[in-house]
Amino acid sequence: MTMPDLNTGALAPVAEEYEADTFNVTGQVPLDLNGTLMRNGPNPFSGKFSGADVLDWWPEAAMLHGISFADGRVTHYRNRWVRSQNYAAYNGDAVDGQVNSNPNVNVLEHAGEVLALAEGGPPVRVNTSLETLGQSDLHPALNNGVTAHPKIDAVTGELMCFRADWAAPFLTYSVFDRDGKQTVAQEVDLAEPSMMHDMAITARHSILMDLNVGYDFTLFDEGYRIPICWDDKRKSRICVLARDGSATQWFEIEPCFIQHVVNASERSTDIIEFDVVRYPWYLKRDLKNKGFFPNPLGVLWRYTIDLVKGQVRERQLDDLNIELPRINESFIGYPNRYVYAVVQPSDQEMRGVVCYDLVTNSRQLHQVAAGDQNSEPIFVSREGHESSSENDGYVLVCVFRQTSNTTEIRILDAADISTPPLATVELGRRIPAGFHGAWIAAS
Ligand SMILES: [Fe+2]
To answer: Rounded to the nearest whole angstrom, what is the distance from the C-alpha of residue 26 to the centroid of ligand 1?
Structure first.
């Protein structure tokens, strides 16, 4: 699974920290867009990736980017490496007192803390100025390590998460209340470690996924930095837990891998609908060539889970290749109508944004020109619209422009992403593609 040259184009890291407060803007930045768009991703301290494979790319140092908006203007851009132990060690500084983590995957706000999240390691508390503040004070239990994709119920304020580990216990499940106090901590039985990246919640349940990608520690012997790969002998299973952890129910599904979920919701007391981006297989070893086969691309897929009959119906909802799905986060765990995602015209490109309307079974596209690439689309609700509908807001997307080797931020109308952007902000710098990000509202 060789990648293109990781040191040119959209994936390429940057070599320095930088900030700016003047930008070329086309159109009008909405007056009610007040906050900071944060992006996270791997960026070697040297400014150069040394490997050529995705498993070399993933574990590199965490770099955050922040673009702040206020009163119809873009007020500031900055990028910073997270100051954890690896940063101090690289600079020859003392590592004592620094968090031993590399939180390069995601950003999440809960109970007033903004956390940079790792793949299973401790989160690191940061702020929208991209300063590193240390471990989580409010969620000390997270400092044992946590998924990069916890889920927050906007109605109750609770945070649901898991920790998957190479060593026993292989899986733990936790719930934190709206103030960060842990209310549930329990092991979930797994016979062997499992590559779990994301999860879902509903109003009453949490959903975990034990799929066909597992651990093969002989990959270390071959020089790989992450020992995960597809295993035909594994079974793919969905675990539906009562949110309070009091009951678990397992459902076998067709072999697959799911990197990211879209959402889940209770459709009746018996039925859960669970939407994901599904791959028929992922990270399959090419033993003849001592590598990996190119991954297939993902599509929108729905699991309809009958809790009483113990059955799952699964079906593909669309044929477009997509990844990095996002929704209006107020609807996480509840029935949602709209899904925003990155379009993948090929396995080397993330180019274009799709908005699915799951009620009319239609889709809109925001086109991105050939050669350019874009990040995940992040939905931001309009401020001051208490009774606003699900798609009343903006979609923010970072677009890498190949000709200028810079990134622009496009602010799209979430109700119609096919119309020209409301505003385009030219950063004059490049934000590497990275993984995930978040909108942190100024209030
Ligand atoms: Fe992810």
So the answer is: 31
For the stretch 342-370, pLDDT in tens is 999 999 899 999 999 999 999 999 999 99
d(CA 105, ligand 1 centre) in Å: 7
> How does pLDDT run across 56-105, given as a tens digit for each residue?
788 899 999 999 999 999 999 999 999 999 999 999 998 888 999 999 99
Find the 147 Cα to ligand 1 centroid distance in Å.
9
**Domain ranges within the chain, ordered by starting residue:** 9-441
Ligand 1 center–CA 197 separation, angstroms: 6
CATH number of 9-441: 2.130.10.10
Q: How far is the CA of 108 from the centre of ligand 1 (A)?
A: 12
Cβ-contact 381, 393 below 8 angstroms:
yes
Query: Are the C-beta atoms of 207 and 238 separated by less than 8 Å?
Result: yes
* CA 436 – ligand 1 centroid, Å: 7
Strand ranges for 11-123 from DSSP E: 18-20, 24-27, 35-42, 62-70, 73-81, 106-110, 113-117
Q: How many CA atoms lie within 13 A of 213 on its CB side?
A: 23
